[in-house]
Amino acid sequence: MAIGAMIDSMVANVRPAVPATYRDIEVLPEHVVGELIAGVLYTHARPAIPHAVAASALGDELGPPFKRGRGGPGGWVILYEPELHLGEDVLVPDLAGWRRERLPQIPADAYFTLPPDWLAEVLSPSTAAVDRGEKLPIYARERVTHVWFVEPIAKTLEILRLDGATYRVVSTLHGDAQVRAEPFDAIEIDLTSLWAR
To answer: Does residue 10 have a pLDDT over 70?
Structure first.
């Protein structure tokens, strides 16, 4: 599949005659993120500023108490934009976290095959449909326990927990609240930091 045949802006209108492969991701320009879902290549440019602010702020809130154990329980590995190889699918969530007992050592590979315990997708108009419609069922199939959807324009944080084969919404949090959100409810998160400019 040539780069010209990429599906832009995370919108798949037509399934290609030949399924995309990891090689199609490898030849993408450096500023383009590629994901493979059911043989379809989805691409999008690096995130816009509100998206990047929200993802960075969320990592800043969770990293010290959960990754490093400063002001919290520790016990997690939390990474920005890890590449996940889940079966035939290749996904890149905005943030993902593994409980340390499941991932005692970071692999030397360029990607992870162990599904995370938690992940966050920061939604934008060009990625929301794929994040919710295409990627969420894969996360459920792979038994990712918690998924957070962060919407920086609407200023919402939606917490989902795996319930059997699908997710259920635990809570939807808005605006500038101080919140405790599972699985990181050992600390309060200041939602204002996610929307700050």
So the answer is: no
Q: What tokens does 107 get?
A: 């692999």
Q: Are 77 and 97 in contact (CB under 8 A)?
A: yes
137 and 180: one domain? yes
Determine the pLDDT at residue 68.
Answer: 81
Could you count the other beta carbons within 10 Å of the beta carbon of residue 145?
A: 17
- Does residue 95 sit in the same domain as residue 185? yes
In the prediction, which pLDDT does 15 show? Answer: 61
Residue type, 144: V
pLDDT band at 60 (very low <50, low <70, confident <90, very high): very high
Return the bridge partners of 37, or none. 40
Amino acid of residue 135:
K
173 and 120 within one domain:
yes
User: Domain tally for the chain?
Assistant: 2
In 39-140, the DSSP E strands lie at: 40-45, 76-80, 84-86, 89-91, 95-99, 118-122
pLDDT by residue (tens digit) across 100-118? 999 999 989 999 999 999 9
> What range defines the domain where residue 22 resides?
3-45
Instruction: Indicate whether 111 and 177 sit together in one domain.
Output: yes
Dist CA 67 CA 87 (whole Å): 27
Question: Closest by alpha carbon to 84, among 52, 123, 50, 111?
Answer: 111
Full-model pTM: 0.89
Residue with tokens 């929307």: 195
Give residue for tokens 């809130």.
61
